[in-house]
Design a protein that fits this description.
Length: 469
Amino acid sequence: MLGDYRIRGRRATEIAADVEHAVVTGVLPPEAALPPLRELAAELGVNPNTVAAAYRLLRDRGVIETAGRRGSRVRARPALTSRDAVRLAVPEGVRDLAQGNPDTVLLPDLEQAALEAARAHAVRPVLYGGPALDPRLRALAEASFAADGAPVGPVGSIASVGSVWGEPEEGEAATVGVASGSLDAIERIFLAWLRPGDTVAVEDPGWSSLLDLLPALGLKPVPVAVDDDGPLVQDVARTLAEGARALVVTSRAQNPTGAAVGPERASDLRAVLSHHPDVLLVEDDHGHGIVDLPCRLLCAGPDGRPVTAHWAVVRSAAKSLGPDLRVAVLTGDAQTLDRVRGRQRLGAGWVSHLLQRTVAALWAAEDTAPAAASYRARRDGLLAELAARGVPARGRSGLNVWIPVSDETATVAGLLQRGWVVAAGARFRIGSPPGVRVTVSSLTEEELPRLAADVAAVLRVRGGDVRGV
């Protein structure tokens, strides 16, 4: 069953560590079957409960999965390896359209904002026991969330910036938190409410980092199909009825398809959520600042009141201000924010105020229109060129265009031969049809016709038709 490899250990933690090491080093390949509990217990001379505890640890860490009558097996994609770790090498002279990065030309100059943050630090340095949140960033975040309809504050209104330190005044509810990027925020939100084994409804195709995070936390992703308006209502209704404990929705600039939740879809999804008030709703708005479409949040109904008991909206600075600014702000119900902030205090403590102040200075001065218009022009231009050649594609908002294909490997290889590196859709999919993701942020107008022509040539089949799915 395991070839020459023999599991070792006397304690559950030792057995789990031995199996995990074998998976990391490749001794145990994906889909490898593990021995039945009692068989391994007899071989190791331990109680079957010890082996059961070891297997439970491995499941919680996303290393193995229980597959009914097939027993316990190494996951096809263990949580120990990021989907993004498998990348094509980019030969010299080849255009890299796979990374998902913003256009550096459209990012603001950090020098003045960083200098301003450093000067503020010199006047009032943040030391141990100091505040968690910069007051200027808090005020900007509260205003931004409230403008998009989030129920910020105890009764849906913006709370005042309590003290100069940005902490709530005594008796005032916390309205905003800050984390080291969107994924850090989402992980903390999950840890506040979910436990290993819980199911989470996620977009499919969807953000590869989120799909990696779930098994690493012992959570089970349940796919929800996505069209240009966001998650399909019937899929969300089905997954919640089947017991999903949480739902993650990308408000706009969905990665990889570019979907953006429209007004009708938002209304329909709120209606579904209203029947499941105990579901944790997480809304990811990493597209803030790079999209000229409104943010249609699901967390509050027309009366301004929350749709579910526990909810959070996460807004990142990475795409609009710079990926290295590891800052995301979040709002949510009071209990969720309290749990996130409390756990943060026990771990990292806080997000550097030098970063927070830099982001606040950039955010306050930011004019988002030019970047959003530039990304729209590149997306629309590529979509038009592809359509003119009979190639269907999607890209309503954000940095990417999603092209359905029937063979991802052949498409990626064919485009590489023609001088383009694109991302294979397997990184983003659970069970949805195959495709490739093209990041448009670095493309020039002159490159669009050649790229579209090369895509069409790679997908072309006999009879002059373009391959579909």
